Task: inverse folding
């Protein structure tokens, strides 16, 4: 028997020391399904009728000493409300009033209560939205001695440019989410090549990429993510986009909440960005939604006609993800992504397609002098030749009808052509064009 009492005393001390919330609660309300506010499921919520006042009442099952109440409000919440307590569910005392509470999803912690009761009633008198009052979870705790139970970092996701730094700070929370002072120093760590964080939490990196910073204090840890972007501008903002289907501009509107989605049709599907002029593209970041590409290719072009493959991706993972292609350094006006196999049955879907670079062209092509685009001999009867720098050539009638097109081929057999005059339209690797008249004899 003594062992039983000792065990019960130990359990009681544990509950009070660690702030374990009361379980087995039931609830009633003026309207709506009150039970979902005490089902220990943050994915369900009580929602009242769309009028004032509205109330919800929690039953602890028996009278208990209450130290704190925690209300997880949805966006449709109370601007003004009161909370009161009862031992019989009829006579309520100790009413506490709250006014002008903030709009938006929030968590209200009502602590230092030390009240003996069985029933706790929340009565909403003014709403922040036109909808009903809505609570994800209504939690009740016994009196507790505050202690450090978790850490916070001042920012969960930071975005900086290469060469910049990010100051991270850490804080402590008690069992109810209230601030708790840290008395021990914090140790910092970071994953990834090129990144570092000093003893005061100052992050820096010599490499672009996504890095996870870890703060450790009193054997507790908290992580934060820092993304280091290229120093160049995002060239895709303010440009134009087209696609095989869907609204392509939603992928370059600088709004991570909107997305381009292709038709749910057979592959392939593509999206193309026109940068407006030839630019030096250095980095590409693709923020995919869950409906994304398993296999795809990235191509670039200076003229929208002749394309070069920049990257081929295969067996990419399912689920929302961000693909990063750094340090490509290619001159292009057009960037095209073509999905050839999907991870889901839906269309391809991109939140944001960021193309970084500069207006200045790379020295590899910009400083290279090429001879004029020519076709020879002229007149010709059997074989004509193209100068070395011609990537693509179209032979057309004088009326503009296409007769033959060649790409990456420096010879054309014209022996079967009808005698007469033709137009030869040539394009070089820089996108320059020249059209000349060719006589076939």
Result:
């Amino acid at each position: 028997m003594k062992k039983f009492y000792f065990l019960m005393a130990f359990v009681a001390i544990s509950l009070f020391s660690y702030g374990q919330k009361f379980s087995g609660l039931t609830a009633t309300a003026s309207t709506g399904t009150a039970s979902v506010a005490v089902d220990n499921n943050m994915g369900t919520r009580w929602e009242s009728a769309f009028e004032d006042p509205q109330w919800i009442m929690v039953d602890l099952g028996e009278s208990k000493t209450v130290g704190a109440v925690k209300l997880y409000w949805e966006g449709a919440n109370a601007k003004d409300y009161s909370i009161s307590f009862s031992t019989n569910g009829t006579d309520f005392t100790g009413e506490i009033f709250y006014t002008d509470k903030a709009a938006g999803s929030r968590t209200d912690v009502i602590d230092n209560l030390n009240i003996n009761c069985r029933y706790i009633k929340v009565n909403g008198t003014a709403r922040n939205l036109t909808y009903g009052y809505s609570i994800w979870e209504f939690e009740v705790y016994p009196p507790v001695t505050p202690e450090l139970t978790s850490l916070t970092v001042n920012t969960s996701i930071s975005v900086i440019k290469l060469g910049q730094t990010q100051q991270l700070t850490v804080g402590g929370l008690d069992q109810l989410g209230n601030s708790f002072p840290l008395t021990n120093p914090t140790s910092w760590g970071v994953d990834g090549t090129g990144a570092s964080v000093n003893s005061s939490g100052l992050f820096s990196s010599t490499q672009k990429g996504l890095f996870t910073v870890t703060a450790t204090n009193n054997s507790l840890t908290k992580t934060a993510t820092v993304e280091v972007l290229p120093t160049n501008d995002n060239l895709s903002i303010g440009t134009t986009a087209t696609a095989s289907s869907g609204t392509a501009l939603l992928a370059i509107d600088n709004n991570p909440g909107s997305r381009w989605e292709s038709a749910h049709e057979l592959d392939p599907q593509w999206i193309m960005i026109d940068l407006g002029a030839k630019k030096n593209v250095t980095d590409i970041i693709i923020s995919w939604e869950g409906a994304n590409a398993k296999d795809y290719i990235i191509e670039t072009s200076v003229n929208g006609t002749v394309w070069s493959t920049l990257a081929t991706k295969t067996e990419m993972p399912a689920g929302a993800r961000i693909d990063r292609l750094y340090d490509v350094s290619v001159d292009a006006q057009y960037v095209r992504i073509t999905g050839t196999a999907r991870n889901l049955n839906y269309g391809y879907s991109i939140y944001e397609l960021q193309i970084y670079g500069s207006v200045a062209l790379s020295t590899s092509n910009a400083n290279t002098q090429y001879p004029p685009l020519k076709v020879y001999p002229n007149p010709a009867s059997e074989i004509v030749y193209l100068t070395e720098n011609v990537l693509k050539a179209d032979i057309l009638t004088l009326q503009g009808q296409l007769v033959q097109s060649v790409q990456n081929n420096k010879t054309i057999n014209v022996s079967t052509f009808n005698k007469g005059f033709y137009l030869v339209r040539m394009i070089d690797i820089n996108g320059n064009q020249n059209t000349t008249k060719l006589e076939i004899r």
